[in-house]
Specification:
mainly alpha, about 0% strand, about 80 residues, single chain
Length: about 80
C-alpha cells in the first residue's frame, strides 16, 4: 500500500510540474529516469548533448522533490 501511495504522489507531482518544462526536456527526463532508457541514446534521439540531458534531468528531479515536499506539508496540515 505504501508503495502505491508513493507512486500516486509521484504521478501527481509529475503532472503538476510537467508544464514548466519544454516537451523535449520532459521527454528526456521521462525516458531516462522513469523508463530507464539509455541516456546516450535518448540524448542522440532528442538532438541534445548527454550533458544537457543530465542537467535537465537534475533540474526536473529537484523540482519534483520540491513539489512532493509541498504535498507532504499540505497533507500534514490536515
Amino acid at each position: 500500500m505504501r508503495l502505491e501511495l508513493r507512486r500516486e504522489i509521484f504521478r501527481w507531482a509529475a503532472n503538476q510540474i510537467k508544464p514548466e518544462f519544454r516537451p523535449a526536456t520532459w521527454d528526456g527526463f521521462w525516458l531516462t529516469a522513469v523508463e530507464n532508457q539509455d541516456p546516450e541514446t535518448v540524448a542522440a534521439r532528442l538532438g541534445i548533448s548527454p550533458g544537457a540531458l543530465y542537467t535537465a534531468r537534475s533540474r526536473i528531479m529537484r523540482r519534483l522533490k520540491e513539489k512532493v515536499a509541498e504535498f507532504e506539508v499540505e497533507d500534514s496540515d490536515e
